Amino acid sequence: MMATKGEENRARIVDAANELFYKHGFANTSFAEIARHAGVPKGNFYFYFPSKNDILAAVIEARVDRLRNSLAQWETAFDDPRDRLKRLADMPKNEFPLIMEFGCPMGTLTAELGKGHHELCDDAQQMFTLLLNWAEDQFRLLGRDKKAARTLARQLMVRLQGASVMAQAYQDRNWILDEVEQTKEWLDAV
Amino acid sequence: MMATKGEENRARIVDAANELFYKHGFANTSFAEIARHAGVPKGNFYFYFPSKNDILAAVIEARVDRLRNSLAQWETAFDDPRDRLKRLADMPKNEFPLIMEFGCPMGTLTAELGKGHHELCDDAQQMFTLLLNWAEDQFRLLGRDKKAARTLARQLMVRLQGASVMAQAYQDRNWILDEVEQTKEWLDAV
DNA sequence: GTCTATACCTTGATAGAC
DNA sequence: GTCTATCAAGGTATAGAC
Fold it and tell me: Minimal Cα–Cα distance from A103 to chain B, Å?
């Protein structure tokens, strides 16, 4: 389908903001930077978005959509819930160059928004909730009761987030590679 | 001993900056805010510190000192290395109201400085290195060889950081309480 | 040494031409 | 609809009075 110029500009702004919010942080990304990366004059931004927060909301929405697509894709690609969970556990490894440098996109965003009591803090949670619920579903399919499945999903998330924090702190991929391997062994055992 | 007025002002600036860098982030903390909290006019800052980065350096130094003191204290308080490690694992629980709201002081600072390739990124690492080396020493005292001790120390850090990230994301202390309990059980087993 | 006043820049946000 | 020019506010850093 043919996108209008307006829709395309909007998408370019969101794409550029998505990358810059991740790599430089939300507060440290200026309209000027987004405008330069997107090739859209910053004066135009207020035609597409009422404020900077609204750009962030669109970015979060895009990330949630992308995540939802990945999860759906893994569900069709793998029949065994255990394989699906392993694929989730592999995510940090598959993107380690970025995570090593800038941390987990979900973890670092919620961390920044949490400080300063940002209004969009709850929106950022959605990404985690999506992953947690999906992982919980997979553990239930493996025969766990609701409480146990929930606990296991949370443990999985703690591992991956912890590895991301440490990998970024030391700019060292081994934190991720080691933890992912251990997590997959753990998934085989539970 | 009697501190001079200058030393006291310097200390007040560092104390105020320490708290604000933690609660609001480094980039989002202005001189005006620090000045208000410290009770020192912001024009004075450049008499004590050449730049904002130098204030941050002093803050990191203060945090490292504080951490070193805690570790030394735990060493004298507990003879069994396992008890010392449990005390370390308890740290997030003991400060959960703050961690729940603002995340781990070490993790969130390194995360922020990592983005933007900040010059003081390496300084912030020191805090982690201090804890990692200390934990490694304790595992060695428990009879582990160097490689195993190092691995265990890293696993410990991953758990605590992961729990802090999730607790802040959801503003929910249970992420910390649950993980600390599991970590202490894990410490008993290893 | 301590503080006031301010310079100079960048920010998010607007106004208005076309 | 798209873009240029500009705003007011707030940031770090400096100059200079006392």
Answer: 7
